[in-house]
Amino acid sequence: MLKTGCTIDYIKNWLSANLNQERYEHSLGTAECAKELAEKFGLDEEKAYFTGLIHDCAKCLPKTETMEILKKIELECGELENPKTHHAPVGVYIAQKEFGVEDNEVLSAIRWHTIGKINMSDFEKIIFIADKIEKRTRPDEYANPIREALNKKGLNAALLVCYKNTIKSLVDRDLTICTQTVDIYNELLRAGL
Fold first, then answer.
1. Which residue, among 53, 109, 25, 70, has the nearest Cα to 117 in the 3D structure?
2. What is the pLDDT of residue 193?
3. Residue of 12, 77, 163, 183 with fewest CB within 10 Å of its CB?
4. Tens digits of per-residue pLDDT, 128-152?
5. Distances from the Cα of 111 to the Cαs of 39, 40, 174, 193, in angstroms?
6. Residue 4: is its pLDDT beyond 70?
7. Which residues contact 148 (CB under 8 A, 6 or more apart)?
8. C-alpha gyration radius of the chain
9. Domain spans of the chain?
10. How far apart are the first and last CA of the chain?
11. Tens digit of pLDDT for each residue in 30-81?
12. What superfamily would CATH give domain 8-139?
């Protein structure tokens, strides 16, 4: 059993009260998908389910609260530029303070589920991917190419599709691209996928 200060029922109730309905459904879907991926890749299914469940725990916090917590956290270069990714480092803070999470693998997977990092562990990769392909809220036209790459070539191929989609989307919207995103994309390409 994963050591935390809370039961799954407590966490689901907390999430239901602190997330909007779509984000709560997404969290359930990510948990289910993460568990399936953990089984497929020989990882801890219970830990994957738990991490998928809480990965977006900070997503619906008020902006003022998010910014206050961010002041307490060490961030990577450029992370403050995109408010859509703020919930990941803040989620680590909430997981520790609200749910009593001490497991570094869980905390790291939450921390990097938005922008990722070079040399992610397989556990971090499945949480990252589950967030993108869960079946409750992610549209098939977006998720199917990632699922196909995952099934044919594995985790790194699925990650490459995720990063291609992200970079295209940011360019199309004239938004800045975190240098870490470009570095990860280049690293995956160099791996010869």
1. 109
2. 58
3. 77
4. 999 999 999 999 999 999 999 999 9
5. 22, 23, 25, 25
6. no
7. none
8. 16
9. 8-139
10. 36
11. 999 999 999 999 999 999 999 999 999 999 999 999 999 998 888 776 667 7
12. Hypothetical protein af1432 (1.10.3210.10)
Distance CA 145, CA 61 (A): 31
pLDDT on residue 77: 62
Tokens of 62: 């008020």
Where do we find the tokens 């309905």?
A: 21
Return phi, psi of residue 179, to 5°. Answer: -60, -30
Q: Phi/psi of residue 6, each to 5°?
A: -140, 155
Q: How far is it, in rounded angstroms, from Cα 145 to Cα 101?
A: 33
Q: What is the mean pLDDT of residues 86-108?
A: 96
Kindly state the percentage of the chain with pLDDT values over 90.
83
Q: Give DSSP secondary structure letters for 140-178.
A: HHHHHHHHHHHHHH-HHHHHHHHHHHHHHHHHHTT----
Q: CA angle, corner 36, sides to 33 and 40, nearest 5? A: 135
DSSP 8-state symbol, 49: H
CB 34 within 8 A of CB 132: no
Helices (H), the chain: 8-18, 21-40, 45-54, 63-70, 87-99, 104-111, 122-133, 140-153, 155-172, 179-190
